[in-house]
Design brief:
Layout lengths: L10 H30 L16 H5 L11 H7 L1 H11 L6 H29 L4 H23 L7 H11 L2 H20 L1 H5 L1
Helix pairs in contact: 1-3, 1-4, 1-6, 5-6, 6-7, 6-8
Amino acid sequence: MAQAQTHTRPTALAVWLIVAGAVGWWAAFQLTVEKFHLLADPDAIASCDFSVLVQCTANLDSWQGSVFGFPNPILGLTGWVAPVVVGAAILAGARFARWFWLAFDAGLLFAFLFVAWLIVQSIYVLGTLCPWCMVTWIVTIPTFYAVTLHILRSGILPAPAQVRRTADTLMGWVPLLAVLSYALIAVLAQARLNVLGSLF
């Protein structure tokens, strides 16, 4: 027997999806513009190139920056529209079917894993920290946490009652979970790239 769903109108989540989607889309747009500039003039210096360590060019020009045969920011230009639309629809009173939430979360899982891979590549292979890429990391991580916890706590993704209660509790701790994730990235970047040493 299917579990009854709760939290069917998650207003706070909806607002976050709109904000995160807008921020992520803007970061993808900026990276796309920088890629166009570099294609038009390979000798151009991107506006987000601040140093050898903090720059966009190395990431955009690398094979990691075009994993699927086209610049990664194009994924962001298309993908970040979805959270904005879903968030706005929730605020307008829409209620989505189970398959929709599961598909939406699957997309966010892909984004989360892709971002995690890009973080590793950026820190351990390219040796750079791309500003607009980091903006994408900042919004992708908590968005995945929040949506996954929502579908667990609401029964959209079938789970034991204890798991649902835990997910409901953790929902209020998503900001802390995100900060801890950022801290882990910062520690890895510092250990590998000596970020503080290059700044001071």
